[in-house]
Amino acid sequence: MAATRLYLDWNATAPLHPAARDAMLRAMDIQGNPNSVHGEGRAARAAVEAARRQVASLTGAEPAHVIFTSGATETANMVLTPEFRMGRTPLTVSHLYVSAVEHPAVREGGRFAGDDVTEIPVTRDGTVDLAVLEGLLVSHDKASGLPMVAIMLANNETGILQPVAEAAKLVQAAGGLFVVDAVQAAGRVPLDINAIGADFLIVSSHKIGGPKGAGALITRGEVLMPKPLIHGGGQEKGHRSGTGNTLAIIGFGAAAGAALEEFEARNVAIARLRDRLEDGMRQVAPDVIIHGEKTGRVPNTCFFTLPGLKSETGQIAFDLEGVAISAGSACSSGKVGESHVLAAMGCDPKLGALRISLGSATTEADIDRAIAVLARIAGRRKLAGAAA
C-alpha cells in the first residue's frame, strides 16, 4: 500500500476546513448552554446566532429562516411530512413526488406512507423529466391536500445539476410545496433559495468542510412550517427541540463563511482539475464512460464506468494503491450495491461505476497520481480479460 494516502472522496465528506477547526477550538471555552439567560449562556447564544448568519449568507436566506438540525437525514425527515402549519392554520400535504435519482434520505419519503410517494423519472441525461412532473401535478387530487415535490439540486453520485428553478415554477402553479436537497450543491454552485423558488432547502455541514453532526433546514419564510420531528423544550423557535450541538453549529457556520469567501477561486481551480482528470482518464482508458459529462455538473465530481470492472473491485483496487474514492453514495454502512441513479438514467446498473470527487486541497500532482492508478487498474483489467 502507498505510504501517503490520497483522499478523493469529498462528496462523502469534506475534510475539516481550517476555519471550522479554529472556530471550534475557540468555542470549546464557551461554557454556557445557548438557551440559558446568564452571561455564559448569552455568549453561547451569540456564537450560535453568528453561525446562523453565516449559513444564511451561503444560501441567500434570512438568518431567522435557518433551523439547525443534526444533519441532512434528520432535516429530510423533518420537512418530508404530510403535516404543516400556515401560521396557526393546519395544512395537509397529501402526496410527495420525488425524483428517481434522489439520495435515499429523500427517496425513502420521510414521514409519508409508501403509497403516498411517487417517483418522477429522469431523462437519459440524468435530469428530471419536467413534462412528466407537470402531468403529475395537473392530475394531483387537490381536494385531498397539497402536493409536495422534492428534487435535489446536484446529484451526489453524478454531480448532475437539476432544473430546479423550472421545476419550482411548475410546483408554484400547482399550489404545492417545493423541497430542494442542496447538500452537494452548497459551496459548489451559486445558492439562493429565493432565486431557486424553493420553499425549503436541505444543507449539511460536513459536505462543505464543517464537522459531522450538523445540518440545517432553510426556509423561504417563517409562516409555513412542518410539524416538528423532535419535541421537547421548544428550541429553534419550537421547530427542533433539544439543546443544539453548539460546537458543530459553530464549525458549520465557519465552514459556510469560508465556502462563500473562497467560492469563485476554489471552484474555478477545481473545475480545471476535474477536466485534467477526465482528459487523462480518456487517454489511459479510451473506453471509459463518464456519466453526465455532456450535462451541467458541479465542478468537482466525476462518476465513471470502466467496462468489465465491478464497482467494488475498482474501489478496492484504488484503496490498495492508497487512493480513497467511492462507488457512489456513502450512506449504506460501506455497502457497495447497484446504482439506482444509473438505473434511472437507463444505464445498466450492473456495469458498475466509481466516483472521484475533488476539493480545495486537491492538487495537479494528486490528479496525475489518480490517472496513473487508473492506468494500472485498466491494464490489469485487460490482462484479466485476455486470460479469460
List its salient traits.
12 helices, nine-stranded mixed beta sheet, single chain, 388 residues, alpha/beta
How many strand segments? 14
Largest sheet: 9 strands, mixed
Helix content: 25-40%
Instruction: Report the C-alpha radius of gyration, rounded.
Output: 22 Å
Secondary-structure element series: EHHEHEEHEHEHEHEEEHHEEHEHEH
* Helix/strand/pairing category: alpha/beta
Strand content: 15-25%
Shape type: globular
Terminal residue distance: 27 Å
**Can you tell me the residue ranges where pLDDT is under 50 for at least 5 consecutive residues?**
none
User: Overall pLDDT, averaged?
Assistant: 94
The number of helical segments is: 12
What would you note in describing this structure?
By secondary structure, the protein is an alpha/beta fold. Helix content is 37%, strand content 16%. The strands form three sheets. Strands 2, 3, 4, 5, 6, 7, 8, 9 and 10 form a nine-stranded mixed sheet that branches. Strands 11-12-14 form a three-stranded antiparallel sheet. It has a two-stranded parallel ribbon with strand order 1-13. Helix 1 (18-27) runs antiparallel to helix 8 and helix 9 packs parallel to helix 12. The model has no long low-confidence stretch (mean pLDDT 94).
